[in-house]
Design goal:
229 residues; 7-stranded antiparallel sheet; 28% strand
């Protein structure tokens, strides 16, 4: 083989390898880490489990002295000022196919200001990146020094308000890119700015559509009662 032919063959081989690498990286970065599944629960036993932007865990949670929970510590200003928690890893996916009709969680308002808790779902990782976003129409109130309470948020389209974008509710539920848990006095996927501390635990993909905020019985994991519709 002539030097020119050898060089040409090597160039083609390198291009083929580079193309294969690009395709592999594209598939890897575009695929969700894990599709949403009914009944999945994040209990923050030893990590933040992909939730952000906060990085802290604390105890005691609703399960007792050794139960850790996720801590939100917004300061009310700038990029770290909003009362939000987000996850675009295991909470992305097709909620309709999975049968996920609500999000349940344990929450504790450790601050001095009453909170209006909502969930938001969108087809982008953040509302600041555009896309379509839906938010709980009616918030679940969480009073100051609430103690651990069981909150459940309906994902029925009749209970969600579109706050940006043009996709339908069912279209977003079929391809959720990010789930956000937040405080907002009016429906807003970005969350309100406030200096406070909030604890979250046992975030669960559920099927019933409950309608209430329930205190925990004897600080255990099971709520004192439940109201479903």
């Amino acid at each position: 083989m002539s030097p020119d032919a050898f060089g040409y063959a090597a160039s083609v081989s390198n291009v083929a390898r580079l193309t294969g690498l690009i395709v592999a990286l594209t598939l890897l970065t575009s695929a969700p880490a894990r599709a949403i599944t009914l009944g999945q629960r994040d209990d923050f036993t030893s990590s933040t489990q992909g939730w952000g932007p906060w990085t802290g865990l604390a105890t005691p949670g609703p399960g007792g002295a050794s139960d850790s929970y996720y801590v939100l510590t917004p300061d009310g200003s700038g990029s770290s000022g909003r009362v939000i928690a987000h996850n675009w890893a295991q909470w992305a996916g097709n909620y309709l196919a999975a049968g996920v009709r609500s999000i349940s969680l344990s929450a504790n308002n450790l601050g001095v200001t009453a909170l209006s808790m909502r969930v938001a779902i969108g087809d982008t990782s953040s509302p600041m990146q555009g896309g379509t976003w839906f938010v709980s129409t009616v918030p679940v109130p969480l009073p100051p020094a609430s103690g651990w309470s069981h909150l459940v948020f309906s994902l029925d389209c009749a209970d969600l308000t579109s706050v940006q974008g043009t996709a339908s509710c069912n279209q977003v539920l079929s391809g959720v890119a990010s789930l956000r848990i937040l405080h907002a006095t009016t429906p807003d996927a970005r969350g309100d700015s406030l200096s406070t501390v909030v604890g979250l635990d046992d975030i669960t993909a559920a099927n019933p559509i409950p309608i209430s905020i329930l205190p925990y019985a004897d600080e255990g994991r099971q709520p004192a009662s439940a109201a479903l519709r």
